[in-house]
Amino acid sequence: MLIRLGYLVEEQGMTYLADMATDDPLASLQAASCTYRVALGPRAGQKVLSLRTVPGRDESATAGLCADAHGFSLRAGVRCGEHPRKRLERLCRYITRPAIANERLTRDGAGNVVLQLKSPWRDGTTHVVMSPLEFMQRLAALVPRPRPHLIRFQGVLAPNAGLRAAIMPGSAQKPSEHAGEHAHASARMGWARLLKRVFDIDLEHCPECGGKLKIIAAIEEPALIERILTHLGLSAQPPPRTPARPLALFQAA
Question: Which of 141, 153, 157, 195 might form a disulfide with 201, Cβ 3.0–4.6 angstroms?
Fold first, then answer.
């Protein structure tokens, strides 16, 4: 009934709201991205242009331990044991993969952005063609909202699960013997360890002997920083900013 009244739209096995207008610009971009439509510009509300270069396949053909319904897919057959390090590495690479692969992104003679799909869709679509504005809308829809949880756990790993403390390492801690102290240590990681994890800059060990270093102060005064760098024979001036690449390079690509 909702489809007949025009409140819902059903296309290619997916059902979604027909009206995407909202006061939140990011929500509008995300809604348009989920429904393969254009959010802004002269083609707002229309479907993105797709190229079908291979024959479509039967939608009912589904592999074992796999399910596809209402635009969502579940692959229960993909699992990793405790000790296979190669499979664990492959799973981690899959989880942390970027949203778009640069080697599958090109521009055609008309200046449109052409994204080659890794695997053809069921209807035979192998490429998605977007204008530069439509492509930027897709990228903006991938930006997470401020302060949400990007990882959610279910089952016994959920935050309020009764058995979570029994399976999580280090979750069962003894209460502090001293009054006024917190019973649990802070889970926040220090900035020195964050530098090591993200940029591979180790500030906790000596690069010469490997001994453990101790941070004694954080110098923030510009004059003192310049004096120390000059004494060490290093440049006290920040490196110049790299100018933006000209548009001709993108058009040539």
Answer: 195
Q: Please classify residue 113 by burial: count the beta carbons closer than 10 Å to its beta carbon, then call 0-12 exposed, 13-18 middle and 19+ buried.
A: buried
Torsion 50-54-58-60 (CA) sign: negative
DSSP state at residue 112? -
3-state helix, strand and coil shares in percent for the chain, rounded to the nearest 5: 30, 15, 60
pLDDT of amino acid 136 = 87
CA–CA gap between residue 208 and residue 6 (Å, rounded): 70
How do the domains of the chain map onto residue ranges? 2-55+82-145, 190-233
- Residue 154 CA to residue 209 CA, distance in Å, equals 45
Q: Tell me what pLDDT residue 181 has.
A: 46
